[in-house]
Amino acid sequence: METKTCAPLGNFIDLMLDAICVVDAEGRFVFVSAACERIFGYAPEEMIGKPMIDLVLPEDRPRTLQVASQVMTGQPKPHFENRYVRKDGQVVHIMWSARWSEQEQVRVAVARDVTELKQAAALQTALYAISEAAHAAEDMLALFRHIHRIIGELLPADNFSVALYDAERDQLSFPYHVDVQEPSPVLRKPAAGTLCAEVIRSSQPLLLTPETLDGFPAHLRQIVGRKSLCCWLGVPLNSSKGTIGALVLKSYSGGVRYGEKDKELLQFVSNQIATAIERHQLYARLQYMAQYDELTGLPNRGLLFDRLHTALARARREQGQLALLYLDLDKFKQVNDTHGHAVGDQLLRAVARRLKLCVREADTVARIGGDEFVVLLESLQHPEHAQPAADKLRGALDQPLTIDGHSLRILPSIGIALYPEHGDSAQALLRHADDAMYRAKKGGESCLPPQEHPLSGDGGCAPQPA
Ligand SMILES: Nc1nc2c(ncn2[C@@H]2O[C@H](COP(=O)(O)OP(=O)(O)OP(=O)(O)O)[C@@H](O)[C@H]2O)c(=O)[nH]1
Fold this sequence. Notes:
This is Diguanylate cyclase. The structure is a single chain. A hairpin with a 4-residue loop joins strand 6 (159-166) and strand 7 (171-178). This protein is elongated. It has three domains: 9-113, 2-Layer Sandwich (Beta-Lactamase), CATH 3.30.450.20; 118-290, Beta-Lactamase; 301-458, Reverse transcriptase/Diguanylate cyclase domain (Alpha-Beta Plaits, 2-Layer Sandwich), CATH 3.30.70. It has 14 helices and 16 strands. The relative contact order is 0.06. The chain is of the alpha+beta class. The structure holds guanosine-5'-triphosphate. Residues 295, 328-334, 336, 341, 344-345, 348, 370-371 line the site of guanosine-5'-triphosphate.
């Protein structure tokens, strides 16, 4: 039978998408097929004679050498994966199938570039992790920290910032910022004139490298020139409400170079992050709305009760005392009727501000209804201190308020409840304070019935005309 020589097939090896590398016993390339240039970026003549290990990513070198010596003892390795650094500095993931040829004293290996597969898998994992993080993170800082870690698994991310844009104030803030050369971010108001602002304004990613700098406007070139930056990559955070900020990666001289692929990757991740941030902001807003009064920004009834329960638990534990002051503005309706609801709103805000100025940081001023406020005085040293506190609140409101050009004077009726004298539970104390306030309003009585408190007979909490 006629046998055909296979020698011409050698030329067709160059058609293969996988690369063939032959390495001698010292680990130097002695043959590489044409596909090597596509995968590693080096021409065959640049690789021949070079130690294979020099091209391996430093972190992967020890295990690569270990596997190479196993192959040389005759154990074929069909699925070994490691990472190489291409000539242009990019990292490629390679899957190897290698065998030792005893006869030729060489290692023959077929290399498959699995970078895209690896990136797709990493991206998938990252997206899942981002979505998990958005649900699990307790606050925005924890979310950004988590996101930094996730991005760090996809890209070199030693210098990473999250910039958020407040359109109302035209201000950029950096709720997350890690930067080896610029530890504190520069707060900008107005935001214009920064690279971040450029990304947010255009809603487009921006990649600045020494090679691409010439194509950019002078003001952007200046910013980069100033900072010994090697590479600046910013992508917009595009939410359903528009661009809410930007993610920024930086690399300084001698560091990593980002490429177009990195830009695409970061943009893709950024879209998921924008959704996560938006969801988190919405959740935070809902939480705020559930606890605070929208008009005055004071704690609402629910949060007051939470704090009161906590304060009572502590007072029980430590045999402490506390006071609850119930305030209802007198003839507030007239303000609305005479000057309009908007003036009434402003008056309520002004009252809230004044009340807050009268108490300590640890105390709570809450708005629990239309013109009803409750002040919780914690760690009350003596029951006698409650009445002067009520007088102080009343005194603060006694000063005229100028709203929309109207000079208004509004006074509250105040009722006081003391723990433990007037009750052991939040409900009992609030009811007691409400009743005392009601008596004060109706009868011009003092906050505490005289038989209950010796200092309460001064009429300091009696209602006054507005
Ligand atoms: N501007 C404004 N008014 C409110 C708001 N919430 C409730 N009100 C009004 O506040 C008034 C409270 O009612 P009352 O406490 O009975 O009125 P008052 O004139 O203070 O009555 P007395 O306490 O008996 O002196 C009502 O007219 C409500 O419509 C609010 O958020 N803004």
